[in-house]
Amino acid sequence: MKNFGLVGFPLSHSFSKKYFTEKFQSLGISDDHQYNLYEIEDIVELKNIVKNTEGLKGLNVTIPYKVAVKPFLNEIDSAAERIGAVNVIKILDNKKLKGYNSDYFGFRKSLEEFLGNAKGIKALVLGNGGAAKAVCVVLEDMGIEYKLVSRRASDDTINYRKANELLAESKLIINCTPLGTYPNVTSFPDLDYENIGNGHFCFDLVYNPSETKFLQKSKSNGANTINGYDMLVYQAEKSWEIWNS
């Protein structure tokens, strides 16, 4: 049996198990390929997963371990090193671990499709966790100026009060926080939604529910909206490519 899986906490919202189980069935390899969920409260438990899982070939990594997992790896791909976060692990010979980042690929492809011909756009990136790291590198590579937004301002981030002052000039808003994720579907980023309109592009990395409060409130004022589903599909396919390379 070739085993794959997802490491994170909590995993009640997981897309990956269903996606890969159906993928294995469609490829006719479900008899000897399996995708499991590893819900762990401490990333230290990764060692036991790797040690005790026979035939383990690859893992995805999600909240809150995309950064915390790095010290447990034997090797990190140069692109993932630049981003500063890992969401794919390939199990090498002797159970050595190599980290990659497929969020970059998934987000960039989805964002390019979403923006179309929009040019000269500025962005607000909400949140500063592992997913935001990949998002920021994509924006840099696409030449999109951005501000990182957090609840408390720091040397690297602005707060939501300042973000609201920039809504008129920041037409791309990307939610990288878990706000609005099932089951906490009533929460949303603290923005002045009346100042978000039909010139705005609002991208929520959350995919469950398919339309978060952030997207609902933005869409009701005329904004263009997209959730994180396409990004997830693209990054999952990139994961599969990495594991089989």
Short characterization:
The protein has 245 residues and is an alpha/beta fold.
Write the layout of secondary structure elements.
Layout: E1 2-8, H1 16-26, E2 33-39, H2 46-52, E3 56-61, E4 75-76, H3 78-83, E5 88-91, E6 97-100, H4 103-115, E7 122-126, H5 130-141, E8 145-149, H6 160-165, E9 172-175, E10 201-204, H7 213-220, E11 224-226, H8 229-243
Parallel strand pairs: 1-2, 1-3, 4-6, 7-8, 7-9, 9-10, 10-11
Antiparallel strand pairs: 3-5, 5-6
Helix pairs in contact: 4-5, 4-8
Following the backbone from N to C, one meets helices and strands in this order, namely EHEHEEHEEHEHEHEEHEH
**How far apart, in Å, are the first and last alpha carbons?**
18 Å
C-alpha-based Rg, rounded: 18 Å
The averaged pLDDT comes out at 96
By DSSP (H or I, 4+ residues per run), the number of helices equals: 8
Model regions low in confidence, pLDDT < 50 over at least 5 residues: none
Tell me the structural class.
alpha/beta
> Can you give the helix content as a percent range?
25-40%
The description of the largest β-sheet is: 6 strands, mixed
User: How much of the sequence is in beta strands?
Assistant: 15-25%
Instruction: Describe the global form.
Output: globular
**What topology, given as strand order, has the largest sheet?**
2-1-3-5-6-4
The total beta strand count reads 11
